[in-house]
Design a protein that fits this description.
8 helices, alpha/beta, 13 strands, five-stranded parallel beta sheet, 32% helix, six-stranded parallel beta sheet, binds NADP nicotinamide-adenine-dinucleotide phosphate, globular
Length: 260
């Protein structure tokens, strides 16, 4: 029997997961992405784009969890594989709830958080609001996307340079005058990030505790320059996730060998 998996993505790891299982004839995957990023290359499997919630004929919103559960039943999925970003807490909560409603397996991958090394000056904050309330420095580099900008008080005195993958969604007039925006991806190497921090005379950096390699170069650069690093803590999740992709593959392989 072919197993149908709904793979929730939007991360590099989801792309790697799909790549790993794509040729396996025992599996049929449908990828689901929010469609926030405009630059993502195709995943190589059938892909649906956008949230699941929708307005019903009676004008009432069908929320994401119920909509996913209905979608699973209609399409006959056997598993939800959630490989969304650790800060994408809403979709993960909805998917977990939907899997309970539809009585199918929910498998979650969360990349491991970063750990400080000697020479690191790391400070932790509950959310972006708390971070901006606390942090006072000469020039703060912010890598936190739209969420960070939304939390930036208009009267924030500290000079901020924010790096964004996509242009801000809010009106520029709602943002403080002390803010400059650089559009671009995280630097590929710590040398590249160091060059950027030196160029702008950055005195501290702020980011989410995302984990993973793709955006870790800025931490190494901050270490090399002795900069303070302010990190927003992750949302918490119920126990039971995988933080090692090989273990997910093993778990799924065992499941497949039982059903074949
Ligand atoms: P979120 O707050 O958890 O989700 C907001 C809403 O977006 C969800 O309720 C859902 O809408 C829709 N959505 C999110 N991920 C989806 C998916 N994979 N497929 C279909 N709908 C999805 O998520 P977010 O923080 O906005 O992140 C959106 C996407 O970007 C995620 O897929 C995540 O993996 C990726 N991403 C996020 C971050 C980050 O820092 N948050 C960083 C890198 C990548 P409905 O309720 O209508 O279903």
């Amino acid at each position: 029997m072919i197993q149908k998996w709904l793979v929730l993505g939007g991360t590099k790891e989801a792309r790697q997961f799909i790549q790993h299982w794509r040729g396996d004839k025992r599996v049929q995957m449908l990828a689901s992405i929010a469609g926030v990023t405009t630059q993502a290359p195709p995943l190589g499997v059938e892909t649906r784009v956008g949230g699941f919630s929708y307005i019903q004929d009676d004008g009432v919103v069908c929320p994401g969890d119920k909509a996913i559960a209905a979608f699973i039943r209609e399409q006959g999925f056997h598993k939800i594989i959630d490989i969304t970003h650790p800060f994408a807490a809403q979709i993960s909560a909805n998917a977990r709830q939907a899997s309970t409603m539809a009585e199918i397996d929910y498998v979650q991958f969360l990349r491991a958080p970063w750990r400080p090394l000697s020479g690191d000056y790391w400070h932790y904050h509950e959310d972006w609001q708390a971070l901006f309330e606390t942090v006072k420095t000469r020039h703060l580099f912010v890598a936190g996307g739209q969420e960070a900008l939304s939390a930036l008080p208009q009267d924030y005195r500290t000079k901020v340079t924010a790096r964004m993958m996509e242009p801000p969604q809010m009106a520029l007039s709602d943002l403080p005058d002390s803010l400059d925006i650089i559009l671009g991806k995280p630097g590929a190497s710590s040398t590249e990030e160091e060059g950027l921090f030196r160029k702008y005379k950055i005195t501290a950096i702020a980011a989410k505790m995302s984990g993973g390699k793709a955006s870790a170069a800025k931490l190494a650069a901050a270490r090399a320059l002795g900069l303070d690093v302010h990190l927003v803590n992750r949302p918490s999740y119920p126990e039971g996730w995988f933080d090692d992709m090989r273990k997910i593959h093993r778990y799924l392989s065992i499941g497949l060998s039982k059903t074949s």
